[in-house]
Write a structure and sequence with these properties.
343 residues; alpha+beta; Beta-Lactamase; 2 domains; five-stranded antiparallel sheet; 14 helices; 25% strand; disordered N terminus
Length: 343
């Protein structure tokens, strides 16, 4: 009975709903006004934290489970009966056991030939993870922005299109249009240093190699700040080039590399760096293989530079050497140096 009513009242694929409901991420509902019948799918019950068919489906029950701060987003009972429903609304639901989920509810009203509302149906999709990710990204953007405003420190990313992903606050600090510095960040560098810096940076971008250099930049208040800028090529585990990550900070500041930039540095460690690190520790290839959980042949390929840069094996080898006290340091000319000494 449910499926026949649902097929008559919705425009979604029944097969698709069956698959997604089985995974606990969706549900469907309908309300035929003439007989007053309201039908919820088993998946819709489960999204609300209810046992399927153990409770009578009703719009009032749905409203009672919606977070009080979100109830205004849903139409009233009278508005539903009049067919005045939003196409989509996102609300938080508090389940009877106290857990909270975020649902995207779509609604569709059906009308008679005379224009009288006869039914409403809809679907629900659990978007809790999406909302949580969006919230986390928002908080991360705020944190990065505050860091540049207070400490003049920024991590950034450049995609294959050459556009930089920068903290918006960078435009405020330097008094330049945000859209312009995302495409041409060299605008922040004082004119007398800009051309040489840009030429060297773009050559390293073209060669997909590590780059480091310092430059003076003018702030919006007229002050000069001496920055160090590091950028690293980044590859995925299959060896595909993804772009570059980078770090910008005042020369006087001493910093530990954040995770994304640290990954870029580790991918820039080549065979001769690994051989130098082993020599400092008096390790054989087999010692490095055992410490990193790699095979002897994999270590040999890494030292022969026959493994691609994004290989997970490279990161495992570098991590094993780091645990043993090896440090990989970027020098002023952009070269990677190897030293020993725990920090």
């Amino acid at each position: 009975m449910f499926h026949s009513a649902l097929n008559a009242l919705t425009f979604s694929s029944g097969e698709f709903l069956t698959i997604t409901e089985g995974r606990g991420v969706s549900g469907a509902w309908s309300w035929v006004f003439a007989g007053g019948e309201q039908i919820w799918s088993p998946g819709f019950y489960r999204l609300l934290g209810l046992v399927p068919n153990a409770t009578k489906a009703s719009y009032d029950l749905l409203l009672s489970l919606v977070h009080p701060d979100d109830r205004h987003r849903l139409p009233t009972l009278a508005e539903v009966r009049e067919g005045r429903v939003p196409r989509e609304v996102v609300v938080r639901v508090i389940r009877p056991n106290g857990t909270q989920r975020t649902l995207s509810l779509t609604m569709e009203a059906r009308f008679s030939a005379e224009g009288r509302p006869v039914a409403v149906s809809g679907t629900a999709l659990d978007v809790s993870d999406r909302e949580q990710m969006a919230h986390a990204r928002h908080n991360e953007r705020r944190r990065r922005g505050a860091l540049y405003l207070t400490k003049r420190v920024a991590s950034f990313w450049m995609g294959l299109d050459g556009v930089r992903e920068l903290p918006f606050e960078m435009a405020e600090v330097h008094g330049l249009p945000f859209e312009e510095i995302c495409v041409d960040p060299y605008l922040m560098i004082v004119p007398e240093e800009r051309a040489a810096f840009q030429a060297m940076a773009e050559e390293h971008i073209r060669q997909q190699t590590l780059f480091q250099r310092s430059a003076h930049e003018r702030l919006a208040d007229g002050e000069l700040e001496h920055f160090r800028i590091l950028t690293f090529p980044v590859w995925d585990p299959e060896g595909a080039y993804l772009g570059r990550c980078g770090l910008k900070y005042p020369v006087a500041a001493g910093l530990l590399l954040p995770a994304p930039v640290r990954t870029g540095l580790e991918q820039s460690v080549t065979g001769h760096h690994l051989r130098a690190a082993r020599a400092m520790l008096d390790w054989s290839m087999m010692d490095l293989a055992q410490a990193s959980g790699l095979s002897h042949s994999t270590v040999r390929r890494l030292e022969d530079d026959s493994e691609h840069r994004g290989s997970r094996s490279r990161l495992q080898a570098v991590e094993a050497l780091r645990r043993a006290g090896i440090r990989f340091i970027v020098l002023d000319d952009g070269a990677v140096a190897v030293s020993v000494g725990r920090v």
